[in-house]
Amino acid sequence: MLNHALSGYNVCILAYGQTSSGKSYTMMGGRDYDSRGIIPRLTDDLFVRLRRSLSGHSEVSDKTSVEVSYLEIYNEKVRDLLNPNNKNYLKVREHPVYGPYVEDLSKLVVTSHEGVEQLIEDGNKARTVASTNMNEVSSRSHAIFNILLTQIKNGTETQSKVSLVDLAGSERANVSNQKERLKEGSNINKSLTTLGKIISGLAENTKLKSGSKGKNTSEFIPYRESVLTWLLKENLGGNSRTTMVAAVSPASANYEETLSTLRYAERAKSIVCEARINEDPNKKLIRELKEEIYRLQSVIASQATVSSPKHGLNCGDPLVLEKLTCSEKLLKEVDLSYEEKIKRTAEIEQSRSTFLQQIGLVSQSTNNCQPIIINLHEDEQMSERLLYCIQPGTTVIGSSSQKSNIQLHGLEDQHCKFQFANGKVVFNAMGPNCFVNGIKVASSVKINHMDRLVIGLKYVFKFQFPDLLKPPMNRFEENRVNWQSVKQELKEASGINLKRVIEKTHSIDREEVKNLLSKYKEKINELESERNSLKCEKDELAKKYETLNNYQKTMEHMYKKEIDSKEERYKDEIRQYEEALIELQTQLNDIEEDSRSSVSINFSLNGDSDSPRITEENLQMTMDSFQFWRKFRMKRLRETLIEFEPLVEDANSISCECGKQLEFKLKVASNTSSV
Predict the structure, then answer these.
(1) Phi-psi region of 288 (alpha: psi -120 to 50; beta: other; left: phi over 0)
(2) pTM of the predicted structure, to 2 decimals
(3) How do residues 411-459 score in pLDDT, each as one tens digit?
(4) Angle, nearest 10°, between helix axes 113-134 and 338-358?
(5) Which terminus in the chain has less CB density within 10 A, N or C?
(6) pLDDT over 70 for what percent of the chain?
């Protein structure tokens, strides 16, 4: 890849994979020389070749300048890691010739591999400070390290860009249970999903181009859906030679993520980029920028009060002013000479050094005779990046920029302090949750070389002062002191305190314990006897309940049987009365028919006539029977009317509720005049 870059091609190395699969280690490497990553090895080899060219070899160009930039993409926002003056997030813009770029991103000139390493170290420091303040970790953001090579050989100028990308870890939503990571994870998944869509679309376009024989059947590529893919537009499907490093985990629990990464890489292999040598790009770019600036200035000058019919913009239109400002900035940046770039680099380095000193940070080359505290982080790439110097006298740690020498966010204004005098360092706790070697500090304690400090349960440090090293050394060796060991030590210290409390509890008088045990045994025996008596009562009550239940069932059966017999008897009596009523009705009908006939019947009371004789006794008996029948019939009729009267009342009530003009009445119809 370095050969391509020195030949004038744009180059990109992309590290993709799930969290903790080794992407950052692949790009940055470890702290040892043999465990260096891709970025240190590439820059080292680059300057080795540059030195060889200066010594007479013609492998590289006659004159070469190297500029670097280091940026971070977190939650779809871009941050400059090399310029502390760029405190706000930067904007991403796109130029028709220059392509996508980050506005106001600092590009620093470097002349040696050591200079590149120092810039990477300073960038990682800025990344670590922001990570601690915002509670992030490195795998939650994308990092892009750019190297810009400008070569002049035989009067021809070529410019190539090397983009080294460390992507954030890809992980499924159900793997991480931390709620504060949801927003970060959604933005990371958004950029990685967009990257996957773009790779799939480019692979499909390559397949269509190879089979369509020149027909325009390409698919739209959504580069601008994510900041990451927008900045890598040329590297993914344009003028670049791109290599993708697929980092996978050997654990069987990560089988699905590993398979997804391999599919990702398989699709990326089918993309064909059309790379070309970038010859004299600045001259054309400068000319077009000057033309664009002249056009925008003419629009502003000529269209002072009316809109431009050609461009459709007003002189006060913020879009015109914004375009003019961006073009002027880009022209000023591209038209800088090499000496001006070096001067600007020195100014930014001085500003960065001043900023680090203001917050108490020092470089790795600090005198070993000076006591320092070094940060420990959960992420190994961010651990031991920040070195804070303990000055002679009093050094205060807190969140206030006026009252503290070392500024750490999330603490009190003056949380703790170090007193350095006569070759001794004393740690004083002024705020809550200050620990030394896992033991909470209430007031002050003397600290020694390689002691572990926890401040506010958020910041973890190790103290280094070789002058205080006395045999025997602490049980933690220097290479074993890390974030995990300090947390484990804190847990063990808490466990020791708990053991002391238990031992203190066991020191109670044994006689008192025996008395308590005897009382508890007596109480247990009483409860046992009470439980047995309650059990017997329960059994007796169960038997009584069963007896009463059987008696109730028997009585219910007898009552039901008696009711059934009474119903049968009542039915028989009703049937007999109905038969007698029918018989009397028949007799009454016969009498009425006889009374309506014109036949005269002579009743002889003396008995001397031949006509049928009815005695007075028989007549009286007949009249009594007739009266009895009439009373009985009226009684039955009255009972029937009484039964139907509630029904008539209910019907009238329902008619009234329904709003109907209906009235129900009882009417008795008979064919006799006696009713």
Answers:
(1) alpha
(2) 0.56
(3) 888 899 999 988 889 999 988 888 898 888 888 899 988 888 988 878 8
(4) 40
(5) C
(6) 72
The predicted-structure confidence for 91-104, as pLDDT tens digits, reads as follows 888 877 677 888 88
DSSP tag of 280:
S
- Chain centre to alpha carbon of residue 232: 27
Q: Distance (Å, rounded) from C-alpha 190 to C-alpha 180?
A: 17
With CA atoms as reference, report the closest residue to 264 among 170, 139, 143, 165.
Answer: 170
Q: Omega before 472 cis (within 30°)?
A: yes
Question: In terms of Cα–Cα distance, which of 264, 290, 101, 88 is closest to 167?
Answer: 264
Q: What tokens appear for 662 in the block?
A: 């209906």
Single out the residue of 129, 28, 114 nearest to residue 84, CA to CA: 129
- With tokens 């002249």, the residue in question is 294
CA distance to 202, 265, 349, per residue, from 260 (Å): 18, 9, 42
Of 95, 103, 76, 102, the C-alpha closest to 226 is 76
Single out the residue of 147, 302, 144 nearest to residue 232, CA to CA. Answer: 144
Q: Which residues have CB under 8 Å from 431's CB, separation 6+?
A: 398, 411, 412, 414, 415, 416, 456
> Could you say which DSSP state residue 629 is in?
H
Contact indicator for 164, 145 with CB cutoff of 8 Å = yes
